[in-house]
Amino acid sequence: MPEISIVVPTFSEVENIAELHARVSAVLGSESWELIFVDDDSPDGTADLARSLSNQDQRVRCIQRIGRRGLSTAVVEGALSSSAPYVAVMDADLQHDESILPVMLQQLRARNLDIVVGSRYVAGGGTGDWNESRKTISRIAGRLAKGLVPEDLHDPMSGFFAIRSEALRGAARRLSGYGYKILLDLFVSAGRPLHFAEVPYTFKPRVHGASKLDSLVAWEYLMLLVDKRIGHIISPRLLFFVLVGGSGVALHYLVLSTLYLGLDVSFTVAQLSGTVLAMTSNFFLNNLFTYRDQRLRGMKLARGLLSFYAVCGMGALANIGIAAYAFSANIEWALSAAAGIVVGTLWNYLATARFTWGARK
Questions:
Q1: What is the residue range of 300's domain?
Q2: 265 and 316: one domain?
Q3: Tens of pLDDT along 54-88?
Q4: At 309, is the secondary structure helix, strand, or coil?
């Protein structure tokens, strides 16, 4: 049994994994270790190269995931496949300093710690060649996490850490699985305060491949924060869906009042116009924000819009039917209307998640 498993989530990192394997081999020396690549079906052959490395070194394993994406869930799957008492997590892009792995492992062994974090923001650490814009984004992301992680954790955004396997397994069922910030998720989901230490390292420049940082990463981080702060009350996706729906209601009334009161268009035509425009706006806003990680494009976008119209049309009928039934049962009109809105909204959310975006979350 290995003493430590190094879990490396990958997507299109074929140029880096052989070098990463060589570097890990060099720094861990005679330690008992294994390297687990968890690949999200990279189109560049990353998984095939990882399997080739496994043929040369039995300490290398590859888990290839098809139809699933996401760094956090990849880390969890890789870690849960390990029988080692310790798990380290690092990126495949060679920007994490593998030379501190022995120090991280030594601290976990020698001290009563659950997790050791590779930190860019303690003495001796640094962000390397980051420009001011990226530094600012990192600082803002750290501030948004305040109240969720310990005050003395300097680098909650780090993607480089080592953890006792039992601590990770204990938190696994409560993890959100959103995005890239698995460390923050672990601290919030552990169910108890985690004993931790930070080891400084300097972030290295990327040599091969392209950075995965984009607007989707920011969206996933926001979803993670929302989930950890109010996820016990309302699902982050449902919250976004409701907020988008609220904007649709406002647009509906704006169009209705403009056409009916301002341009003397018949009420029926004005109402129909407001309804169609509000539904169209809701679809595109949900595609952009609520389901950003599953955005529809091209012909799928057109089919999705038609599906959204059909589902929300049925939701409108459910809304009217429930409200009318409640009102006929002598329930006050405002409560009757609210009941219809709740039922219609939940139907729209659940049905569009299934039939329009095919959501798994």
A1: 236-355
A2: yes
A3: 999 999 999 999 988 788 899 999 999 999 999 99
A4: helix
**Predicted TM-score (pTM) of this structure:** 0.76
Q: Which two tokens stand for residue 133?
A: 């814009």
Structure tokens that stand for 291 in this block: 């389901």
In a domain, 360, yes or no: no
Phi and psi at residue 167, to the nearest 5°? -70, -40
DSSP three-state, residue 10? strand
């972030």: which residue's tokens? Answer: 203
Please compute, for residue 176, the number of CA atoms within 13 A of its CA located in the half-sphere on the CB side.
27
Distances (CA, A) of 168 to 59, 114, 312: 21, 9, 41
In which band, very low, low, confident or very high, does the pLDDT at 213 lie, cut at 50, 70 and 90? low
Residues 217, 250, single domain; the answer is no
DSSP element (H, E) containing 46: helix 46-56
Who contacts 158 (Cβ-Cβ below 8 Å, separation ≥6)? Answer: 117, 118, 119, 120, 183
Span 284-312, average pLDDT: 91
Q: Which residues contact 183 (CB under 8 A, 6 or more apart)?
A: 89, 117, 156, 157, 158, 159, 161
More confident: 223 or 164: 164
Residue 186's closest CA among 167, 201, 165, 200?
167
The residue out of 230, 264, 293 marking a domain boundary is 230
Within-domain flag for 304: yes
Q: What are phi and psi of 178, to 5 degrees?
A: -80, 130
Mean pLDDT, rounded, for 140-151: 83
pLDDT in tens, 155-173: 988 999 999 999 999 999 9
Could you tell me if 165 and 18 lie in one domain?
yes
179 shares a domain with 65: yes
